[in-house]
Automatic annotation (TrEMBL), chain A:
TM segment ranges: 21-41, 94-113, 120-140, 160-179, 200-221, 263-285
Full protein name: Carbohydrate ABC transporter permease
Family: Belongs to the binding-protein-dependent transport system permease family.
Example of a GO biological process term: transmembrane transport
Keywords: Membrane, Transmembrane, Transmembrane helix, Transport
Compartments it resides in: Cell membrane
Domain ABC transmembrane type-1 positions: 88-280
UniProtKB/TrEMBL annotation, chain B:
Coiled coil residues, start to end: none
Gene3D superfamilies associated with the record: MetI-like
Protein's UniProt name: Sugar ABC transporter permease
Membrane topology of the entry: Multi-pass membrane protein
Domain ABC transmembrane type-1: 77-292
Spans traversing the lipid bilayer: 22-47, 80-102, 114-134, 163-188, 209-234, 269-292
Length: 295, 302
């Protein structure tokens, strides 16, 4: 930290002016980041007539939740007019098992790779890690064939499998880097007492893993909830996840364009991850930096 | 008695050691099949005659030739260069600026940080949807400016073939610049205070401290940020789909959307596979040297 107050040779008044300017710039940036969110909320609460007459930034004169209701219960995705709620539950049914399985596998992999190191453990880890960086376009075509052969095409279990397989490298990375810093003596002492591989994992390692479990769960949840590529490629139709349904609603070309419904549907799609971010921002940032910076 | 006990515990120890391999094996096998196997599979497909259906007949470099003869692929590549370049540079400037500004003992720093970073938690589809609404020529920013009395204001980039790719830049910067800020802020907090204090005692001004000492010392973060952003840019798919749909026509196509269109809509599996391999090669060219230097650096330090 090198800040104006501590490191300035200038007179006091000059610093005060500079600090005022500083806050002004920061507030302008905050407005820039918040503007789309505010417009999204305000548009979703307006009627279509008011949207056509009014301006983008005008707040709704009459607040109505009709658009939210319509988006949730009635909006048409393709030919099905069941509202986005069906797809919300699709996403929930996809995300929960995929997050839990990939986090569990990541934890046990990380534990095995650090505390019970076998010959070649580092190479195994490096090979696993590579999966984090491939552009997923390179696996789309084989995956759609394999899912078809397995009878999992266009199904939620199929998507769960895809997300587990391609989430593994991230969760393994998280846990491996976390367990590296845990002293090996902890495990050694337990083995002398006669505890085995799984006993140590359940009794000693998992109880001290809470922070990294939170990081992993949040990272995986955000990734899987927000995924569009796999959803669009492997689960169109009634099993589509919410992002695919949202894109369908917004880009449908039939009928009157209902901007308020689009915005309500977008907010509904964004709400779960936003909520996670607001409640556990610290862990979210840790996942971001661990997941994308450190190899 | 004692001897047999020790062989027994040796045996358990050996089983335990194998247990570790057994536990990692399924993930490793999955990775071998779903990552490496699939890459080879796609790679082979790019050398096959596959069009509507995957076939195994060898076609040599035919698909790559067809790919590079397609006007649309060239548009996608050019767009990637324009988009990637602008996206990376703008994110770095905004991210670095915000980090430096936030590093001035700001009141409510936590709240501001939360605001700057929240777009990163959203799906690119949500971001695309809202920016599509903000930038739509009829009722969006354009009409807002008209209401303010600036009636000649025209903003039709979303439906303008020459400008559509820039709307993708606008939305992508909004989403990712806060993340760059977070990376830089973490780095700024790690700079050695004693060096800064010493420079200050020597009479260095604050801008000189920043440009002369702090920014050079956080150079590795610039590299990390560039790699992360480049990686994001090459993989960009959802945002284009939601914002412009690759349009007008295919004016804002990126390689990722090109591949998807060829593979799933145009029945050109071979060309799709070839473009996917080109994407993989691009990402590898960025990531592999970076990871190599990171891992080597890690060894040196530890």
């Amino acid at each position: 930290m090198a800040d104006l107050q501590t490191y300035s040779h200038d007179a006091g008044w000059k610093n005060t002016v500079l600090r005022g300017l500083l806050y002004l710039v920061l507030i302008l940036f905050a407005a820039y980041y918040l503007f789309p969110l505010i417009v999204m909320i305000s548009t979703s609460l307006k009627s279509l007539d008011e949207i056509r007459e009014g301006s983008l930034i005008s707040l709704p004169r009459v607040v109505t939740f009709d658009a939210w209701n319509y988006a949730w219960n009635e909006a048409c995705v393709g030919v099905e007019c069941t509202g986005i709620k069906v797809y919300f539950w699709n996403s929930v049914k996809m995300a929960i098992p995929a997050v839990l399985i990939s986090t569990f596998l990541g934890a046990i992999n990380g534990y095995a790779l650090t505390k019970w190191r076998f010959k070649g453990a580092n190479i195994v880890f490096a090979l696993l890690l590579f999966g984090c960086f491939i552009p997923f376009q390179v696996v789309l075509l084989p995956m759609s064939q394999v899912l078809g052969k397995l009878g999992l095409a266009s199904s939620t279990p199929g998507l769960v499998m895809v997300h587990v397989v391609y989430g593994l490298c991230f969760t393994t990375l998280f846990f491996r880097n976390y367990y590296v810093s845990i002293p090996d003596e902890l495990v050694k002492a337990a083995t002398i007492d006669g505890a085995g591989f799984f006993t140590i994992f359940w009794r000693i390692i998992l109880p001290i893993s809470t922070p990294i479990i939170v990081v992993s769960v949040i990272w995986q949840f955000t990734q899987i909830w927000n995924d569009f590529l796999f959803g669009a490629s492997f689960a169109s139709g009634e099993n589509a996840p919410m992002t695919v349904a949202l894109n369908n609603i917004v880009n449908t070309t039939t009928g009157v364009k209902q901007y308020n419904v689009d915005m309500a549907a977008a907010l509904l799609t964004g709400l779960p991850t936003l909520l996670v971010y607001v409640l556990a921002g610290k862990y979210f940032v840790r996942g971001l930096t661990a997941g994308s910076v450190k190899g | 008695m004692g001897a047999s006990q020790s062989t027994e515990s040796n045996l358990t120890a050996r089983i335990q050691r194998h247990l570790s391999k057994i536990v990692v094996a399924p993930s490793f096998a999955a990775s071998l099949f779903f990552v490496y196997g699939f890459i080879l599979w796609t790679g082979y497909m790019a050398f096959s005659k596959s069009r509507m259906l995957p076939v195994w007949d060898w076609a040599g470099l035919r698909q790559y030739e067809r790919l590079w003869q397609m006007e649309r692929w060239h548009v996608a590549i050019e767009n990637l260069l324009v988009f990637g370049g602008l996206f990376i540079v703008t994110c770095l400037i905004i991210g670095c600026l915000l980090a430096v500004l936030l590093d001035q003992r700001i009141r409510a720093e936590g709240a501001l940080r939360t605001i700057f970073l929240y777009p990163m938690a959203l799906s690119f589809i949500v971001t695309g949807t809202v920016w599509k609404w903000l930038l739509n020529p009829g009722l969006g920013l354009e009409s807002m400016m008209h209401d303010f009395g600036w009636t000649s204001f025209k903003f039709d980039w979303l439906v303008n073939s020459d400008m559509a790719i820039y709307t993708v830049v606008i939305a992508a910067v909004w989403q990712a610049s806060g993340f760059v800020m977070a990376m830089f802020l973490a780095a700024l907090r790690g700079v050695d205070q004693d060096i800064i204090r010493a420079a200050y005692m020597d009479g260095a001004s604050l801008p000189r401290i920043y440009f002369g000492i702090i920014i050079p010392s956080i150079r590795p973060v610039f590299l990390s940020a560039i790699v992360v952003l480049a990686h994001l840019a090459v993989k960009s798919f959802d945002l284009v789909i939601a914002l412009t749909g690759g349009g007008p026509g295919y004016a804002s196509d990126l390689p990722a959307t090109f591949m998807y269109t060829m593979a799933f809509q145009r029945n050109q599996l071979g060309v799709g596979a070839a473009s996917a391999m080109m994407m993989l090669a691009t990402v590898m060219a960025i990531i592999v040297p970076y990871l190599y230097s990171e891992l080597r650096g890690g060894k040196k330090n530890g």
